[in-house]
Each structure stands twice: as C-alpha cells, then as structure tokens.
Design a protein that fits this description.
This is Abortive phage infection protein. It holds the Pfam family AIPR_N. InterPro entries: AIPR_C, AIPR_N. Helix content is 38%, strand content 21%. It contains 15 helices and 18 strands. A hairpin with a 5-residue loop joins strand 13 and strand 14. Helix 1 crosses helix 2, helix 6 packs across helix 9 and helix 7 crosses helix 9. The longest helix is centred in the N-terminal third of the chain and has 19 residues.
C-alpha cells in the first residue's frame, strides 16, 4: 500500500502539474483537485464553485449547494504547499472556521447591510455571497456544512468539532486533510465502507448457495428519505443509471403515485434491488445494520420519494417499498455480482444491454486511452483534441451538465462532438474489421461479451 508520504508527493506533484497545464494559481488547482475527489465519493455535487474572498475576519474559497438534499456547503482551505506534510493545528482550524462562519453571517444579514452589497458585482465572491443570501431568504437550506480542505495532517489532539446553531441554521464542520484524501485514493476502485442503521422486518431466503444470502423486506418512505439524506450518491456508486439522467414517463408515474395514492405505492412499484457486504440481525430476525448498501435498481424510486418529500413537502409515511437485499461478503466477487444483478434487474426505463458492460476492463482501459491519446491535428488548429470514448451512455452530455460556459467551451474544444466514439459503434467497427458478421448481426449491444483485451 502506498505510504502517506508517497501519496503526499504524488498529490503535490499532481496539483503543480494541473496548475501549470491549465494556467491556474496553485491554490485554485489544489481546491479543484480536492473537490473533484469529494465529488467522486458523493461528499460534494458537481455544482461546487471556486469563489475566493478574504478580508479581516472573513474568508471563503468556494461553496456547493445540493438542491435535492437542501444542503449548503461552505468551502475554505489551508494550503501549505510545502515539500513535507505540515500539521494543521487547533488554532489554525479555529481561525479558518470562524472566518468562514463570519462570511455566512455577513452574507445573510437581513438589515440591508449584507456583504454582497459591498462586493464588486463582477466578482465570483459577489455571486457566492448573494447566493447564500438568496438561498436562506427563500428558505432553501435545511443544513449548512463547513468543509476545511488542507494538504496538511490534522492535529491528533482534535477529536471532534461540535455542531452549532447559527442564525437558526444547523452547522456541521469537517476537516478534509491529506489522510482523508489518501483514503479516497486507496478506495478509488472499491466501495467506501459505510454502515446504515435500520430496523427492517426481513424474510431470509435460502439461495442454496454459499455465494450470497438474500432477504426480502419492506422499507418505509421516511426511512428512504433519511438514508438518502445522510449518504446521497454513495448509495448509487455501482448503479448503471448514474449517468442516465432522472427523466422519462416512468418518473411521472412514480411522482403521481406518491402524491395521489401513496398507500398503493407498494402494489404499483417494482421495488428496490440492493446489495450489501454484510448485515446484522436482532434476535427477532429484523435487519438492524447494513454495510456498504448499494441500490443497483431503484435509483429513480429513491429519488422520486426523496424529492416529493423534501422539495414538494409530501408526506411519504404511507409509502412503503419492497426491497430485495442480497449480501455478498466476498469483496472480490461483489463487483461482478453487482454488475450481474444490475443487468437483470433494471427494467423500469430502457437500458441498453451494452451499458451493463461499461465497467468491464475493456471499457475502463479504452476510456483511459481516450483520455491520454491525442487525435491527429486537423488543418491549422492549435488545440490538441481527444477521441472521446463514451463508456456509459449519456456520459458526454452529463460531463458538461454543471460546467460554467467557459469551462464547457474548453471541454468541447478538447473533445469535439464529431470525435465522440460510442462503444456500440466501436463494437460494430471492430467486429466488422475482424470479419465477424455473425456477431455484428446480433446488434451493437451484444459486443460487451465479445470484445478482446486491449493491446496498444
């Protein structure tokens, strides 16, 4: 396993390289690198924004707003950028958190002297300050988080940062230090361990195999809201629909049932298919704890219930959802098991068969090559471009969904739409070149089982 010192050097060089290649100051490159890591594990949304502001007693470097969960996140950092790992002291933490809280308090003042009125309107800080004011004024915030990002190591003396109540808002505080970033790095290709406390009736199903154990249970709408509120996108890390955006007639049906006939939801809905690495049962056979809970079919059901309750204020206590939970305690087999369960369980919206193979080694390697290999220059164009390999359907559009206009234009310049390679088209070309008409004739979605290992 890579040591903390080795990881730090890797991380430090990555930030320096990113800053130089993109023409950024190193602190901003550091900020964006850390935020992208947090997005990858569901700690932030793709909406995060870099907004630097610092004056006496007030400071912020960015923010994030999760509209669905109504969570506002304030981002600040202590970037040491040294050759060795610094210790982030308690005094430094107190100073940074206090200055961040002051930015919130000054921005949300209702006495006509809000901070945004004193900032140049064209600045990013103005947007940050005004959005905080607007979100709070329109009662769009249920919780505020303050994240302090650092390339240092938090002092071992810090055990807990108590939550606070500020201006009628609940505040939580977290330190994202180099050890936390190392854990993200080490678990990048695995599920991040987390546990969910529940109290669910369960019928144990004998699978006749020592490979997995299944349970049938019923989960209430309020429990779904609570679980999603706490864990967010972590629940869908291995869901094939991650990039297939929340749309389609089926979703209207879900919402209509929740709003008009919540008591019939159990009868009308297909339910949730989920996996876990372990569960705990009490003496009555009820499930009390689920480890590494993954919803592989039912993301739309979960989102619809959550949105109806949080965004539209509908009572979901009468909503009950059937859930099939399969437990695989062998981590090596879990990914393959999840892939197979997703393939056979997803039926609510059309999902192309090729999408189920998007996590195979072939697609991961092909995606990696497309990110690293430049396409031949065309004419006198000076911008180097890539062949964009769309490993998951809708990935190209989804990647631009929350980009600012300048960032989106840069992405398009580097990844022209006419250089997008759909994996099904690649399959057709590959199998045609290899003179395999009997495979091509089966349809583009068939190739997931036939593609050979990449050798370049």
């Amino acid at each position: 396993m890579i040591s903390l010192e080795e990881f730090y050097e890797h991380f430090r060089q990555s930030v320096i390289s990113d800053a130089e290649s993109r023409g950024l100051m190193r602190p901003q490159a550091f900020f964006e690198t850390v935020c992208e890591d947090l997005v990858s594990i569901g700690d932030l949304t793709n909406n995060y924004s870099y907004s630097q502001f610092s004056k006496r007693g007030i400071e912020i470097h960015g923010y994030d707003y999760d509209e669905e969960r109504r969570v506002l996140t304030l981002l600040n950092y202590q970037y040491f950028q040294n050759d060795f790992i610094e210790t982030l002291t308690g005094a430094q933490i107190d100073t940074k958190l206090t200055r961040t809280k002051n930015f919130f308090s000054e921005s949300t003042r209702q006495d006509g002297n809000a901070l945004w009125k004193k900032i140049e309107e064209s600045s990013e800080a103005y947007s940050a300050s005004y959005l905080l004011y607007d979100y709070c004024l329109r009662e769009k915030v249920d919780k505020v988080r303050v994240l302090l990002l650092t390339d240092g190591k938090v002092t071992s003396r810090l055990k807990e940062i108590p939550a606070e109540r500020i201006n009628d808002f609940d505040f939580e505080f977290r330190i994202i230090d180099i050890e936390y970033l190392q854990k993200i790095y080490l678990s990048q290709n695995e599920l991040s361990d987390f546990e969910i406390d529940v109290n669910l009736p369960a019928l144990k199903i004998d699978s006749g195999s020592g490979y997995y154990q299944s349970y049938l249970t019923v989960i209430n709408g309020l429990d779904i809201v609570d679980i999603y509120d706490k864990h967010g996108q972590k629940l869908f890390e291995q869901n094939v629909r991650t990039f297939l955006q929340f749309r389609g007639d089926v979703n209207k049906g879900l919402r209509n049932t929740i709003e008009n006939r919540p008591d019939m939801f159990f009868a009308y809905n297909n339910g949730i298919t989920a996996t876990a690495s372990d569960v705990e049962l009490d003496s009555d056979g009820r499930i009390t704890k689920i480890k590494n809970f993954q919803i592989v079919n039912g993301a739309q059901t979960t989102s619809a219930i959550y949105a109806s309750n949080i965004n539209n204020g509908h009572n979901v206590s009468d909503v009950n959802v059937q859930m099939k939970l399969s437990v695989v305690d062998d981590g090596k087999n879990l990914s393959e098991f999840v892939s197979k369960v997703a393939e056979y369980a997803n039926t609510q919206n059309k999902v192309n068969k090729s999408d189920f193979f998007s996590n195979s080694s072939f697609h991961r390697e092909m995606k990696d090559y497309s990110n690293r290999v430049f396409a031949p220059a065309v004419g006198g164009v000076q911008v180097r471009t890539h062949w964009y390999y769309e490993r998951v359907r809708g990935e190209y559009l989804n990647e631009m969904t929350y980009m600012e206009s300048k960032e989106k234009q840069r992405f398009i310049n580097e990844n022209p739409k006419n250089q997008l390679i759909d994996k099904r088209f690649l399959a057709k070309a590959e199998n045609s070149w290899n003179q395999k008409p009997y495979i091509v004739s089966k349809g583009a979605g068939y190739f997931g089982r036939t593609m050979p290992p990449i050798s370049v």
